[in-house]
Amino acid sequence: AFHYYEIDQQKRPLRFWKWDLPIYYERVIFREKEEVERNYTWEEAFAKAKELAREELKAKLPEDASIKGEKVLHQTKENGKVRVELHYQVIENIAIPQPIVQGD
């Protein structure tokens, strides 16, 4: 058993063809949780926020895309949280190939 955990329950009806039967099956998942407290200086927190934003953007971009520029628009620190707004210049191919239909 876990010291800290959360329960994820999924309840679904049993189906027969297109009808829902009055019987359900339930899937219960126990996930371990861990509390972690991290203390950063302002500079470390700002650098970590920029790094996380870049990694998140790279995960959403196709492999042939590249990040050409990065600009900090706004940065604040309030209630122990760091908020950073960044502007990225990205080069990616957004063209969608379409067939050319020739007339007679």
Explain this structure.
- This protein has 104 residues and is of the alpha+beta class.
- The chain has one helix at residues 42-60; strands spanning 5-16, 19-32, 66-78, 81-91.
- A two-stranded antiparallel sheet has the order 1-2. Strands 3-4 form a two-stranded antiparallel sheet.
- A hairpin with a 2-residue loop joins strand 1 and strand 2 (19-32).
Count the beta strands: 4
- Numbering strands along the chain, what is their spatial order in the largest sheet? 1-2
Radius of gyration: 24 Å
Return residue spans where pLDDT drops below 50 for at least 5 consecutive residues: none
The share of residues in helices is: 10-25%
* Gross geometry: flat
Secondary structural class: alpha+beta
Number of helices: 1
Instruction: Report how far the terminal alpha carbons are from each other.
Output: 73 Å
Q: In the residues, how many domains can be counted?
A: 1
Mean pLDDT: 90
| Main sheet properties | 2 strands, antiparallel
* SSE string, helices as H and strands as E: EEHEE
How much of the sequence is in beta strands?
Answer: over 45%
